[in-house]
Amino acid sequence: MSSHSKLDKQIFEEFSKDWTNLLVESELLLENNDKEEFLKDNNFIVNKTQKGIDKIVKVKQRVNQNLFRKMVLSNYNETCAICNLNHPKLLVASHIMPWSKNEKERLNPHNGLCLCSIHDKSFDIGLITIDKNLELLISNELKQIKNDSIDNYFNIYEEKELNIPKKFYPSIEFLQYHNEHIFLGA
Question: How many CA within 13 A on the CB side of residue 42?
């Protein structure tokens, strides 16, 4: 850009670091180029006249996921392997090796943990993991947060052994994969 203004440079620098925000901003501007009123609040631009509507979409569905869920929850007596929560509506059959990474192991009960929703999400994004001794490890990212919620949901379970499943123990190979490729580190 040989002939650009300071504003051009500022805008380029802002959006070159955040392509997602650039896309959202440009789409909003293009969609609403008829000078409708906008509300701007903390980096969000909302067209006052837009409405929330429903749209029918085509989705991909995991076939036999319900069978996997039944096997895994039954294997753990419908109880979170970490915190003992035992309300089935709040439990997830969590894959140790992600669904997308190994098609052959998707329904293998040795690739499943029964976790409550918060521990499932934390496991999926690598904030926690399970080691080969079936003990909970917590990432540095969570350890750096000092508050009662982190203590109550995570820290009190650190290095404690999981609830032992009835039949299908978590595969050491799958746990190792999770530790090496998903866990954010201790």
Answer: 0
11: exposed, middle or buried (Cβ count in 10 Å: 0-12, 13-18, 19+): middle
pLDDT tens digits, one per residue of 5-50: 887 777 777 777 777 776 677 677 666 665 545 555 556 666 566 6
Q: How far apart are CA 112 and CA 168, in angstroms?
A: 9
For residues 141, 118, 150, 41, the Cα torsion angle rounded to the nearest 10 degrees is 70
**Predicted TM-score of the model (pTM):** 0.70
The range of the structural domain enclosing residue 74 comes to: 65-181
Both 77 and 139 in one domain: the answer is yes
Same domain? 104 vs 174: yes
Q: Is residue 56 part of a domain?
A: no
- Structure-token match 């970490």, residue found: 82
pLDDT of res. 39:
53
Tokens of 97: 């090796």
| Angstrom distance (rounded) from CA 158 to CA 175 | 16
Quote the CA–CA distance of 176 and 129 in Å, as a whole number.
10
Instruction: Mark whether 149 and 108 lie in a shared domain.
Output: yes
Domain count across the chain: 2
Residue 24 near residue 47 (C-beta atoms within 8 A): no
